[in-house]
Structures are given as C-alpha cells and as structure tokens.
C-alpha cells in the first residue's frame, strides 16, 4: 500500500506538484486535428491547467492561457484571426506566442500606444503530428516527440476520445497489470453474456507466470498462459509494451491516458493502419462516452470493462487501503519508476524516454504482434454492438 502522502505525490499533476513537473517534461496529446476542423478555437484542460487551443487563418497552431488578461473573459469564445486570436469582449489580439498585437480602443485613442507591447500571456509550444495536436508544458529546451512509427509513417488513423471521471494513475496501472485480462475481460464478459441469455464469448486462459522488463521508453509486461508454450508464445518471448508516462501499445493501436486534472483523465484510442499504394489517407475522429445514456457501465466490451474498473476505484484511488499481492508486481514496478522520474526532475535530469536527437530514425515498438500474437490463451467471437466491437481488442486463437 501507499501512504496518503505517497499517493498524492504520484497522482497530483497540477503546476508545481512532483508528478506535475514530471508530466510537463513529456509532450501531451491534447486534441485530434479534426476537432479544429469543426471549430478552430477549443478549450482544453490538461495537467490541471485550463487553456485555449486555436488555429490561425494561416494554419499555425497556438496554445495560450484560458482567460484574457484585460477583463478575464475566456479566449475559448474568441475570434480566429490571420495570425492569432482576438478576445470577443474588446478585441484584444494575441499571436501564437501570447504577445498582444492590438488593443482596438487604446490604439484608436492613442496611435502611439505601447501598452500592448507590455502584455504577454502564458503560451506553450504545440505541434501537429500523426493526426493529433501535442503540447509541451515544461521548461526549455523542449525534447523531441519520440518518432514512433505510428506517428511518422503514412498511415490511416482513427482517434476515439473519452473523458473519464478518475485519476490518470489508476488507468495506466491497469495497463501494466496483464493478469486482469483473465477475469475483468474474459470472465466478466462471459458473465455479461450469461445475464443476456447468450453463450460465452471468450474462453479464459489461466495466467501462470508474469515478468516485467524495463526498456528505454517504459516497461514490457510478459506472461505465460496455461496451455501456451513459453518458447513459442509471443506474449512471453516479446511481451506487451507500456510507454512512459501513460501510454499502452497494442500492436497498431496506442492508448493515451492524459491527466486532465487530479480527478479526470482523457483516454484516447489511437489506431493506425498501414496504407497501400496510392490509397488516400484517412483520419477519423469520434468523441465517445464511457457509459450508456441511462448512466450505466458498458460491460460487453473490453474497453467498457476497463472503464468500469478504473472509474469505480473513485476519483482518486485510496491506495492506503489496498493490499497488494504477487499479481501486482508490475504495478509496484511502475510506481517505483515514476517515483524515480520525480527524483530525476528534482536532480535536474531528463525523464525516462527523453529524445533530443532530431535525426533519430523512426522507432518501431516491438510487441507480441511482431510474432503474429495478441491476447494469447483467450478465444472467442465478436460481441456487443458494432460500434462497441470497433473499440475492442479482438481476442485471437
């Protein structure tokens, strides 16, 4: 278990907190590019900060503080301009670096007005990569966004976004816990099917052994499932990668558990598919919910059962009341590594997985899919609605 103080140290992400300072050393995905097609100005919240993301008429991206420094009106409801954004209240004009360019009344009253030159609002570096908008909220110089193949190759991309009412840590701790698949997914999904009068949808495979290896960008979780020979099992020979600080890789799919604040997480399902010759690239986006219109959990999909497990732990899991066992080796290791990340920042060092070589070659994330594997030892067909199936990691024989 963790003490109350240790739990707060790992879960709190606001400015000045130990984990908040760690998170600010990583590029954070804050929006899907298609969202800006619908509206070039968006309010976003990340790492406990409320901000305004915008795209200028020239196509440049900017990320600035939420409120105008004049009278405190939200810039989220501002007006897109050629080189920036105007506050809708009195027209104060800011560029992507947060510099005030114009103050309509003051400029008209005094053609020599220099007041605007002294007004600069908080702004952060932002870039568009792989169909996502990424922000860096940390100190300069900013590192590179690691050039993973998912981002730098020409691929079809599908982005699903879900806002969850819980802390980021309980989401990623689920990712570093491979043993939960047997029960949370296979057995719970079978029970959901039984309640509906349906046949079982998966055959659970008993988890026999777990192992965890630290690598440059995170942790590889490996397991042996009953009846799956270790010498030929992709799930044991390669394993399943977790990437710092809050990513899970599932073959061509990445999952980002982005801390909105201490009590909310934005979960992105980022799925890619390699294109064929002359095939037009597709970039799809959808905003999805974690519950039914009636406010119930969706318990007939893998992601739905994940969401249930994360959200029902509470806004912030009460870790001082938990009792960890042998099955929790990966959770313990992840917490230790994130604590070391805090120490790195406090020593003035780079966090794990920092890339500063702009010429680094595209990075392939090895996974069990490289050996033709997936969720070994769990068998079954499709289940749930068509949309729910699309959000499901399909089991393989």
Q: What does this entry look like structurally?
A:
The protein has 397 residues and is α+β, with helices and mostly antiparallel strands. It folds into 2 domains: 30-135, Rieske [2Fe-2S] iron-sulphur domain (Rieske Iron-sulfur Protein, 3-layer Sandwich); 149-390, Naphthalene 1,2-dioxygenase Alpha Subunit, Chain A, domain 1 (Alpha-Beta Complex). Helix content is 23%, strand content 26%. It contains 11 helices and 18 strands. An 8-stranded mixed β-sheet has the order 12-13-14-15-16-17-11-18. A 4-stranded antiparallel β-sheet has the order 5-6-7-8, with no helix packed on it. Helix 7 (180-195) crosses helix 9 (302-311). Residues 375-397 have low confidence and may be disordered.
What strand line-up does the widest sheet have?
12-13-14-15-16-17-11-18
- The SSE string, one letter per element, is HHEHEEEEEEEHEEHEHHEEHEEEEEHHH
Number of continuous helical runs:
11
Which shape, going by the Cα principal axes? globular
| Poorly predicted parts | 375-397
Structural class, please?
Answer: alpha+beta
In CATH, the architecture of the largest domain is: Alpha-Beta Complex
Residues in helices, as a percent range: 10-25%
The CATH top-level class label of the largest domain: Alpha Beta
Roughly how many Å apart are the termini?
37 Å
Q: Any idea how many domains?
A: 2
Question: Largest sheet at a glance?
Answer: 8 strands, mixed
Mean pLDDT: 92
Q: Can you count the beta strands?
A: 18
Beta content: 25-35%
CATH topology of the largest domain: Naphthalene 1,2-dioxygenase Alpha Subunit, Chain A, domain 1
Q: Supply Rg.
A: 23 Å
